[in-house]
């Protein structure tokens, strides 16, 4: 029997851990790595970069709702219908991911970056955003794009090579995908500083106060751009959420090759509070992000969120993860699947009626057909189109390169016509 309208903060069990507000997040001296006998940091120690201790969690992997004294209030208003819509978002995004991967294998896309397994971190955090907030994604944030209302096939224009991956960032508050690792965190920091200087922070007007969120992976934290972003965001108290999806792999390099402590431990050194969350828990991802966004909008400054999750697919479709990780590890994380977790919780509440499941299945099938049809209809752009929309206004260097390319192309036509060259 459906319980639509029942708050989602009615826990089935209670956790014994203490509240974890961002300011009190582990990551200082207490989070130093445990050395091994040969002097290396223990990869799976209780305080290392792969530690799952101290993660904010509201739904266990078995779908049990657990209480959290700090974050329950951020999900108290969510009804069963809200949770069903979160489930819908994750199911549709995974179907999109599956179809795009298949299209790449069929030669319809040049490349694709999967988000398989990271749906909860993206959908949960994305649903905490307000319309005026602005998102700076990397290239794997398909779930956030969906929640922000983008036509998902527009994302595939980039991976098909039809255009530069352009859409209007202001229409949905969602910036362009960024392929240069970590560089967009600087763009996000600058944008957040601009919002701050425009007076759109701390006004008390919920329709005006604005936050900015930047999504990046664990590998990006090893880039200087992210470090510089932390400097500027911290010093300027920018209204920014730095959302790190720690999926444990920077292509084939594990997080243990990038850090000796949890990645969130870096932020306090820049004066930025940090929090670690179970990234496969859509409720916890929502709650933690809602708190961080609230802090940003009210003038409290930036927050670093580390969503601890797992990349179930390949880094991109040009990658073969079987060469560097074990099947046993994948099986472990498959049992922590974010979609199964929320589905189990809804079933236990009697809040997942058969008609909803049937409707969602049909909607996912329709999305799959839509993706296949739209991608195959994109056609092939002219080579000269690469010079279009590079800049908003005419640019001398681009125009010179266009003229050279046209001359180069025409030289082949001249030869075909028998020109003595």
What would you say about this model in short?
By secondary structure, this protein is α/β, with parallel strands linked by helices. It contains twelve helices and nine strands. The protein has two domains: 13-376, Thiamin diphosphate (ThDP)-binding fold, Pyr/PP domains (Rossmann fold, 3-Layer(aba) Sandwich); 386-416.
Question: What is the topological layout?
Answer:
Blueprint: E1 13-14, E2 66-67, H1 80-105, H2 119-127, E3 134-136, H3 142-147, H4 152-160, H5 169-172, H6 183-197, E4 212-217, H7 224-236, E5 240-246, E6 249-250, E7 253-254, E8 274-278, H8 282-297, E9 303-308, H9 327-334, H10 338-348, H11 354-376, H12 396-416
Parallel strand pairs: 1-2, 3-4, 4-5, 5-9, 8-9
Antiparallel strand pairs: 6-7
Helix pairs in contact: 1-2, 1-10, 1-11, 2-8, 4-11, 6-7
GO biological process, one term: branched-chain amino acid catabolic process
Keywords: Oxidoreductase, Pyruvate, Thiamine pyrophosphate
InterPro entries: Alpha-ketoacid_DH_E1_comp, DH_E1, PdhA/BkdA, THDP-binding
């Amino acid at each position: 029997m459906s319980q639509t309208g029942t708050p989602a903060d009615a826990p089935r069990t209670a956790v014994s851990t203490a509240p974890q507000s961002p300011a009190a997040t582990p990551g200082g001296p207490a989070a130093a790595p445990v050395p091994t006998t040969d002097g290396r940091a223990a990869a799976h120690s209780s305080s290392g970069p792969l530690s799952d201790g101290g993660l904010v969690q509201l739904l266990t992997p078995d779908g049990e709702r657990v209480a959290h004294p700090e974050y329950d209030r951020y999900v108290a208003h969510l009804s069963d219908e809200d949770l069903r819509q979160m489930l819908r978002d994750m199911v549709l995004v995974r179907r999109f991911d599956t179809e795009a991967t298949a299209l790449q294998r069929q030669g319809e896309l040049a490349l694709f970056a999967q988000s398989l397994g990271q749906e909860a971190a993206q959908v949960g955090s994305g649903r905490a955003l307000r319309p005026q907030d602005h998102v700076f994604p990397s290239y794997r944030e398909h779930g956030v794009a969906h929640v922000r209302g983008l036509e998902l096939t527009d994302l595939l224009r980039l991976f098909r090579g039809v255009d530069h991956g352009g859409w209007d960032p202001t229409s949905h508050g969602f910036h362009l995908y960024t392929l240069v690792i970590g560089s967009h965190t600087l763009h996000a920091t600058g944008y957040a500083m601009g919002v701050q200087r425009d007076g759109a922070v701390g006004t008390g007007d919920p329709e005006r106060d604005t936050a900015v969120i930047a999504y990046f992976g664990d590998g990006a934290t090893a880039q200087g751009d992210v470090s510089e972003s932390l400097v500027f965001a911290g010093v300027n108290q920018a209204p920014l959420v730095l959302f790190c999806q720690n999926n444990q792999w920077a292509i084939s390099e594990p997080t243990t090759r990038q850090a000796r402590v949890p990645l969130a431990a870096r932020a306090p050194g820049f004066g930025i509070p940090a929090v670690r969350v179970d990234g496969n828990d859509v409720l916890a991802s929502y709650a933690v992000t809602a708190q961080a966004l609230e802090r940003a909008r009210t003038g409290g400054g930036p927050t670093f969120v580390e969503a601890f999750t797992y990349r179930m697919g390949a880094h991109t479709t040009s990658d073969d993860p079987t060469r560097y990780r074990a099947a046993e590890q994948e099986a472990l994380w498959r049992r922590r699947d974010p979609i199964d977790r929320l589905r189990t919780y809804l079933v236990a509440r009697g809040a997942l009626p058969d008609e909803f499941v049937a409707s969602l299945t049909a909607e996912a099938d329709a999305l799959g057909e839509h993706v296949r049809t739209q991608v195959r209809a994109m056609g092939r752009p002219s080579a000269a189109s690469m010079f279009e929309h590079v800049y908003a206004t005419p640019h001398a260097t681009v125009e010179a390169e266009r003229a050279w390319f046209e001359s180069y192309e025409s030289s082949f036509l001249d030869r075909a016509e028998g020109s003595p060259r």
